[in-house]
Amino acid sequence: MLVTLLSALSIAGVGCGEERGVAEGATVTAYVEAPLCVGAQHELASADGAAGSVRVAIVCLASARDGGRLSLATVGANARRATEDSASVAYLEAPDPPANRASRPIVDSANIPRLASSSGEAAMARLLEAVGDADSSSLRDSVREALDEP
Questions:
Q1: Crossing angle of helices 120-133/34-46, nearest 10°?
Q2: How do residues 18-57 score in pLDDT, each as one tens digit?
Q3: What is the pLDDT of residues 82-126, one digit of tens each?
């Protein structure tokens, strides 16, 4: 049963890893750190939840700060959560250098594009533009290239 499900998902093009593009109408996921989540949700709602023919879902991650103290365990758990999802298209992070240093190697190991911003709205708008403009090759690679541009 599991093999059948995995085969069906690979044929449908649900994932957005490096080997193939994303099927029209597929849903990809943006993992968003807690400080950016409300703004990102608002911007995604303004875009009717999609970028072109690709639906975008948001996973709001747990806050890694409690009373100003950084929990590296939470940072790591959040980053690993994004890497475990084959439909993960980006990791939107707040500009928090200690947290970013901890999450970077985890997220980068899965080739998931990262975008640091102090505005959830601006980060999601930039991501939606990158997804909408992506070519038919790897969505993650296309998004990374677009986000790396100034």
A1: 50
A2: 445 667 788 999 999 999 999 999 999 999 999 988 999 9
A3: 999 999 999 999 999 999 999 999 999 999 999 999 999 999 999
Which of 14, 4, 17 lies closest to 143 in space, CA to CA? 17
Every domain of the chain and the residues it spans: 25-148
Q: How far apart are CA 95 and CA 133, in angstroms?
A: 25
Instruction: Report which of 86, 71, 7, 2 is spatially closest to residue 34, judged by C-alpha positions.
Output: 71
HSE-up of 116 (CA within 13 Å, CB side)? 11
Q: What is the pTM of this model?
A: 0.84
Q: Which helix (H) or strand (E) holds 28?
A: strand 27-32
Dihedral pair phi/psi, residue 26, rounded to 5°: -70, 160
CATH class of residue range 25-148:
alpha beta
Q: Which residues contact 96 (CB under 8 A, 6 or more apart)?
A: 64, 65, 70
Across 33-99, the runs of DSSP E, i.e. the strands, are 50-51, 54-60, 65-66, 69-70, 88-93
Give me the long-range contacts of 142-146 (CB less than 8 A, separation at least 24).
143/89, 143/90, 143/113, 144/111, 144/113
Q: 133 is written with which tokens?
A: 């403009």
